[in-house]
TrEMBL record:
Gene3D superfamilies: von Willebrand factor, type A domain. Residues 82-251 form the VWFA domain. Residues 19-34, 41-59 have a biased composition (Low complexity). It comes from the Eukaryota. Residues 1-65 are annotated as: Disordered. This is VWFA domain-containing protein. It holds the Pfam family VWA.
């Protein structure tokens, strides 16, 4: 039986994550207010009815009537998306930032795999594995695929050492290119291609052109008439480098201006304010990704996108 990969055509049943979630730190998301904050607030609110009957209070529901998020399972959407991590391994990441990122991935991997047996994929900006990827499945080369255990994350981080620059644009291009080619081949059958969320964790400003990579991908998604939720890119800052904060803000706020405002919104960023150095957690990352998914769901509805 062929399984649909469209989260809005019907989500698969998911089980409650068996990994304890940490309370998120104070952070500032530079995404616009409609990025899902209202939905996230609803998730923490108890159902008002005392009835023991099932309730949709605090739930985010797709057009098909299936749950994207519920009070019992905030991250149900993970079963319908492939999660890809891109980690900055430039020289500036050595020190406190490196174990911090490892700890986040150690925590988030079991949450993702409790919803999706595919596991998570992991790429670094500089370090590349000999694996050539798989063009038939839209997988770029040079990464680690189907990671299901925190122990695997630890093993990887003990072999990779931060060095070099911050070629964020180049790495994103290499990841997006085979996936967009797959979408082009499957045009008219997007349900057979699982949507992706690319989570980029970095401490510095890119040393290359990230904007052009994102603009090119967004334009291609529009040409293909791909669903609004098909590709999401979320940038998270570690450390407190002001240059990184400004660079990430520009990615979120200024891209539309470069193309006269006519650009598909597929980017969200989280930065630290006023030199503060917060600590990323699995929960804080997944809340932002959930907010991005919910916002794109809303844009799909308001734009009149047909159900796929």
């Amino acid at each position: 039986m062929t399984r649909s990969n469209n989260p809005f055509a019907g989500l698969s049943p998911t089980k409650k994550p068996d990994y304890p979630l940490q309370a998120p730190p104070a952070y500032t998301a530079t995404a616009p207010p409609q990025s899902g904050d209202d939905y996230l607030a609803a998730l923490s609110s108890p159902a008002r009815s005392p009835s023991p009957a099932p309730s949709n209070a605090g739930s985010v529901i797709s057009d098909s009537g299936m749950s994207v998020s519920t009070p019992e399972d905030r991250y149900a959407f993970l079963s319908s998306f492939d999660t890809i991590f891109v980690v900055d391994d430039s020289g500036s990441m050595s020190g406190r930032s490196w174990p911090e990122v490892e700890n986040v991935l150690n925590a988030v991997t079991p949450i993702c795999t409790s919803h999706d047996d595919d596991g998570v994929d992991l790429y670094f900006l500089n370090h590349k594995t000999p694996d050539g990827g798989n063009i038939k499945t839209g997988k770029a080369g040079g990464g680690y695929y189907g990671i299901r255990r925190a122990e695997t994350v630890h093993e990887i981080f003990t072999t990779v050492r931060p060095r070099g620059g911050t070629p964020t644009g180049q790495r994103l291009h290499s990841i997006l290119r085979p996936y967009l080619q797959l979408l082009e081949q499957r045009k008219g059958d997007f349900e057979s291609v699982k949507p992706i969320n690319i989570i980029v964790i970095t401490d510095g400003a890119p040393s290359d052109d990230v904007e052009s990579t994102i603009i090119s991908a967004a334009k291609k998604l529009v040409r293909l008439d791909a669903p609004m939720h098909q590709v999401g890119v979320q940038f998270f800052q570690v450390g407190n480098e002001p240059g990184a904060r400004e660079a990430l803000r520009e990615l979120d706020d200024d891209l539309g201006d470069r193309v006269n405002g006519d650009l598909r919104d597929m980017v969200d960023t989280v930065t630290w304010e006023h030199g503060a150095r917060g600590v990323l957690t699995a929960d804080s990352i997944l809340k932002v990704v959930l907010g991005a998914v919910v916002r794109r769901l809303d844009r799909r509805r308001t734009s009149g996108e047909s159900r796929r």
